[in-house]
Amino acid sequence: MLANHTAGNFTITDFRAADNKFFLYFYSPANLTAAAQNILNTATISGGNTSVMIDGDAKITFLGVTDLKVSDFSIS
Computed over its alpha carbons, how large is the radius of gyration of the chain? Predict the structure, then answer.
């Protein structure tokens, strides 16, 4: 996901933490771990899926995922 291009609802259907990362490009936060944790702090789990908010405008739903971790995100 690119910074400033995040409005809307997005669904990821095949995310597996062992094989994938969710990339956020051009965010350049001062603290990468804290930025990922801030995203995780928005997480809601429902029906075996996890949704997080990015920039307050984008809802990302990971189907079949209930255990997202900071290490599942890559932020640059």
Answer: 11
Residue 24, strand partner residues: 75
Q: Tell me the C-alpha distance between 76 and 12, whole Å.
A: 20
30's tokens: 């001062």
User: What tokens does 1 get?
Assistant: 């996901």
- What is the value of pTM for the model shown? 0.88
Q: How far apart are CA 43 and CA 19, in angstroms?
A: 21
Tell me the pLDDT tens digit for each residue of 14-64: 999 889 999 988 888 889 899 999 999 999 999 999 999 988 889 999 999
CB of 58 closer than 8 Å to CB of 7: yes
